[in-house]
Request: fold
Amino acid sequence: MPQRSHSDRPTIDDVAAAAGVSVATVSRALRGLPNVAQSTRQAVLEAARQLNYHADPAATRLASGRTRTIGVVVPLLSGWYFAQVVAGIEAICATEGHDLIVMSAASHDHLDQLADDSARLRRRVDGLIFVDYALADSHVDRFHAIGIEVVSIGAASGGFPTVGIDDRMVGELATRHLLGLGHTRISVVGAMTDDRLDPFRFAVPRLRLAGCTSTLAEAGLALDPALVVSGGFIVDGGAAAATSLLERSGPPPAVFALSDEMAFGVYQSARALGIRVPDELSIIGVDDHEMASVIGLTTVAQDVTSHGAAAARLLINRLASDETGPIEHVCHEVRLITRDTTATARSASEENP
Amino acid sequence: MPQRSHSDRPTIDDVAAAAGVSVATVSRALRGLPNVAQSTRQAVLEAARQLNYHADPAATRLASGRTRTIGVVVPLLSGWYFAQVVAGIEAICATEGHDLIVMSAASHDHLDQLADDSARLRRRVDGLIFVDYALADSHVDRFHAIGIEVVSIGAASGGFPTVGIDDRMVGELATRHLLGLGHTRISVVGAMTDDRLDPFRFAVPRLRLAGCTSTLAEAGLALDPALVVSGGFIVDGGAAAATSLLERSGPPPAVFALSDEMAFGVYQSARALGIRVPDELSIIGVDDHEMASVIGLTTVAQDVTSHGAAAARLLINRLASDETGPIEHVCHEVRLITRDTTATARSASEENP
DNA sequence: AACGTTGATGTAAGCGCATACATCGTTTTC
DNA sequence: GAAAACGATGTATGCGCTTACATCAACGTT
Reply:
């Protein structure tokens, strides 16, 4: 047993003694519970302040069963998108007095493992925010079973609260923009036609692609399957996909990259191949990454940080309200930002040599 | 008191009963302590496995006083640099079985507040990693006083372990590269001559600038104070600084931006002003940001993620060894990566019209 | 005036673990 | 072969809180 030195931190007993009340009253007063006389509460607050007392979180957690901690699980901590989300979550946690622990699970295998082994998370967090996973109800149920609330960011829907955008609309906006510039041959980069390549945004690529397809259909056009290329959702993936696309003979199609980071990859690839943007190649992305303005990338913008903030609020409210109430789904706005990587299509004769 | 349902999580008593030993033996066996017979340990492990038992962290923390949690404090969670660092820390925490909690403190005011109110962190984390703050020994002492170990990333030195690079060398490499291309007029962007502008990298800008100055001196050149411009360490800051610089009459000097993000700002600014890179303007940055390769930025590269990993290892080792042993300072390598934003200086007559 | 109410406070029993100390059988030492 | 040392294990206390329940004074109610 660790011996306590004279200068050790004050306990609730010290505060009780100083304020001349019992520990129960101190506990109630400090946590703002009712049935404490105003004068008593003041005395307790003052005693706590003087002693610089702060309840030991470990003891609080053990006794109450609540950790006042939430966890965020992301596929890749170093990615721009995820960093923004985590920043949004952290801001809310800080103001709400919750601790935030971060975890990465690089693939759905890891995710399954996390759910299988949910007991390890037990009593460690009150709730979990999953970012960009294809979370199934069955996963979530496993967490609910051990008393962990779950909110998901980027998922379409399910029996748990989610935060996201209208990804179909994203595809529409991007496609409409390109159509408006006269582009009829459109390539979609990052479509994740190969499910094995998609440890991350799951439904998102499909929905964005669907938005594109339907918009083209409205214009009486069809998406050329040969122009739908998959690839990792980050810069490398975009570059690789674009290279295979741009090395084909003939004029390149306009490129709708399903994320800005992929768009950067396309941009990089074009630069390497000596293809001028936007004169020879139009590129549009999604996100409004901080670097988008640097290279003048046209993009469908979303406020990623606010996704994180909204998810954190949703989760914390749900924890406070004892997990009752309807499942909320919040959907954030998106908007087109026209910059310099998209331009009017060259004449039809050039377009189809 | 929350009533326990029949299906509640197993406790150490359940494991003890199942294995036919006492709780003390279970505790020892599960934590790998000595003085447990092999056969007993096996029996305990098996019982724990069957019951899917995991020690309640809250109880463990309360009883042992160790949280197996470390915290990382960054100025800006959404910045590229910090996201990389956090990713590196998280990776180590995950393998070492530590939880990682993230906190942001946007300025030194916040940092002071954190230290003043260190009691709030008390019993919440075993150790803290500070990223890019001008941490003073006095701050650190406050944390040590309440039993929190501290490691700093990016700081030069002090009475606590640090992880960083040779920032003077960074300045030398960049400057030597520009000199080698024939540039003699060099601008340093992000030098933080105004201390009020520097909530972040503290000594870092000064050292990089000093490396530049001394290298110029070796070549018999002096840095023109008019070409040293300060600004925020991110894209906006670089852009603003660069605009003021590039709008001056005459050919622009070669730009040494003290971070890649600032270099991107300079690049963006040049693009906006119609100044061609690298024909009319050479730019070199520091970091090797993932976007550096996209625009072909020449830069002095550092492996930021490994900074985080090293700091986490340092901290966890220190915690394990009961905070004894010498203070370690780890210094990581940097290297020049030549890409496309730097080019040979135009002839002297053009350089000085 | 006897009695149920209500609000303020205290008492004490856990929460689930770690660990000091006690115990006991076994081995080593002289 | 008795004493001492050691390894394996058990007993029981405490870590610092929360909270069910008890208590009690000050009310309002018939």
